[in-house]
Amino acid sequence: MALFGKKLAEAKIWLKPNMETLQRTANRGSVSTGYDIDNSLKLEDDNTENLYRALNGSTSTTKFTISMWAKRTEINGSQLLYHRGVAGNEGVFLRFATENASYPEALQVDIGASGTNSRSYTTASFRDTSAWYHVVLAVDTTQSTATDRFKLYVNGNLITDFASRNNPAEDFAMEVSSAKHRHGAYNDTDGFAGYCGYIAECHYIDGSQVAQTEFGEVDSDSGIWKPKAYAGSYGTGGYYLDFEASGDLGANAEGDGVDFTLNNIAAADQSTDTPTNNFCTLNPLVNFKYGTNAGGMTNGATVFGDNTGGGIGGAFGTFAVTAGKWYWEVKLTEQVAHYIGISAYPDDGDNVLSTSDPHQVNSSFVFNISGARIEYINGGSVTAGSADAFTDFHSVGDVISIALNMDDNQISMYGNGTLQAGVANTSIFDAANKMVVPFHGTINDECQYNFGGYSVWTPSSVQNDENGYGTFEYAPPSGYYALCTQNLALYGG
Fold first, then answer.
1. What pLDDT, in 10s, does the model give residues 128-160?
2. Contact by Cβ (8 Å): 347, 358
3. Arithmetic mean of pLDDT, 405-428
4. What's the first-to-final CA gap in the chain, in angstroms?
5. What's the pTM value of the predicted model, to 2 decimals?
6. Which of 452, 454, 485, 69 lies closest to 277 in space, CA to CA?
7. Is there a contact between 332 and 397 (Cβ–Cβ < 8 Å)?
8. Sign of the CA dihedral 478, 483, 487, 489?
9. Among residues 451, 417, 228, 428, which one has the least CA distance to residue 327?
10. For the CA atoms of the chain, what is the radius of gyration?
11. CATH number assigned to the domain covering 282-491
12. Domain segments of the chain: what residues?
């Protein structure tokens, strides 16, 4: 099983907005040996993507459990993981919230009905955009002990530290009549409080307060929390969303058999980025932009830039590598100016050296699709060699592929599947800067990234790496692999 996150003894289940949000070399996991999750669902608030269904008429008013995995791709505003209730009225909420400035990106729990509401939010902030969170909300309002009426778990840990905790009254009855289950938004179609990221393994247990250990367990070798198969009952109105059928992503695989209605969700929103094989994305916490319309990240943190123009921007990947051979792709949706390549591990994003040239990152090695390879080391730019042949591949729709060889200190670039300008060696691989991340700089332009887990474009001919991971437009060169935890466990440093 691919494992992720730090050992529990050293773990932070919430992370501040710095480069701790990278998947580091000590945080890779191991080869899968158990329960695997094959698919997730990508949700985007800009596209009002969410799913909903009616509650079963005999659903319990006092007891339920929701268990789900979530990987965030945007830290901005309140984002709803789960809602049980009536749109425009109070109900049950589980969401990342920004309402308290002292505790931004806390998890918020509301338990209410018909205008009566008990609201709680954690002191912890959940900002890690490189890893998956397991979140369990287990409710039983019949409990005589107030703090037992709801239990919130993150990555197997019971949350006891709340900035504000308001427990529902004993025997409080939650909304049932005309209420719905929702994932990804507060309303059916308008996307209010929409969620940005991936979700997987959504279990709803009706009529029971179920412990987190029914859905996950601590790995005996690493001490890391990992998924396991749920073997219990779903109750009268329960469900299980596994997102396995691309043509029916709202299918209820267990429980009462009532499927979800999809709002602006298509087959292309299915992803192989999952809790058991976590893929690199662009990092929304470590990017830079200058100008009103520059930068911006959407679609599962795979689309970068803003086609309205007006500034420059740069973005880093969420995975840093020190060894191995790695492959990813970039599709150009505009063609003015891109700088595509790698950067040394950026300490808190403070190595940006220019407000006018997006490649001036200390240290970086990029291909400028206008015709040069540029190495930017310690404040000085070095043209590493001509890349004139590469200028044939900078039109809208062209796919640029990056093959990074950390073992031999080399990087190669491909235009629409053809090697361009030979193999380049670069000094950013020196001992001090050995940890390397994907990097992209752009002037006014938008581009689409594909690290293999999810891409906004559908490859015309699906290609995988030699381990069967990643969904690419072009086959990775022999010995090169997708940036995912299953591969990193085998080949990463």
1. 999 999 999 999 999 999 999 999 999 999 999
2. no
3. 81
4. 18
5. 0.91
6. 485
7. yes
8. positive
9. 451
10. 23
11. 2.60.120.920
12. 8-271, 282-491
